[in-house]
Amino acid sequence: MKKLLSIMLVLLMLLAVVPSTAMAASRKVYISSTGKGTMHMRGGPGYEYSVVGYVTHNKKVKTYDEDGDWTLVKNGKVYGWIRTMYIDGTTKALGNGFKAIVANSAVYASADMASAVKGAVTPADTVRVYYTENDMASVVVTDSGLSGWIPIPVIGVTVKVVADNPPAYSDSVWRTTASTLNLRSGAGTQFAILGKIKRGTGVTILESVGNWRRVKTFGGQVGWISASYLTRQATAKVTASALNVRKGPGTYSAILGSFKRGTRVNVQYTSGNWAYVSTKRLSGYVSLNYLAF
After folding, report:
1. Residues 6 or more apart from 48 whose CB is under 8 A from it?
2. Helix (H) / strand (E) containing 222
3. Whole-model pTM?
4. Secondary structure E strands in 7-101
5. Mean pLDDT score of the chain, rounded to an integer?
């Protein structure tokens, strides 16, 4: 009898610790508009509790009890608490892309309005939302590149953001059309061959004489080729795993998005070590270091 009572006591203790699967519901978590956000699961319904695990954006979890603004969830084998607003809640409404600002707000150093102020946003600004926590969103301000945290209520609807219209740089990018093209030391077939370049090579024009162009490849080769084998539209392949596309030609400029490795882009202009490129989805400046012509 004592043994049976002991077993029953243990079972009751287990039931008190582990939520009943009959109460569980499978729901999706929305943390980050970019799909890369990670959130802490805590040991109790509040930020003062220790971290017991993690859950990522778009993850399906089992939900159990609620306590105020918090919900107990199970991710894999781990039970923990997250804010209810991240489960089919207001962060889903943030969506993807760039967002308008609907009210003035300080930009904070962390997801806490008691943290240091880094700057400000106004209704004239747009931002890119990266992830959210504690009723705050981590953003980058499109024009200034300022990064920080702002309250979710000041974020408005999705807006379209494109790069500044590129100026008509003289260093436009051209593409060779001959299967193999001789690169010569002067403007004519009588000049020595310095090397050969393949079809599709991207070049910039340095000088023109009649139907001949002195060009420079992005591999550093310089020489003369016939203009008959050049076309205005150059294409290149992205070699970085994720290549940032920026609003201007420099790392200081706001990030508009990114291209995956292997993406084919149309190269329009160059500015120093930067190229203005375009696809149907996105246009902007990228580093030439991560393009293969």
Report:
1. none
2. strand 222-226
3. 0.41
4. 25-28, 38-42, 51-56, 60-67, 70-75, 78-83, 98-101
5. 78
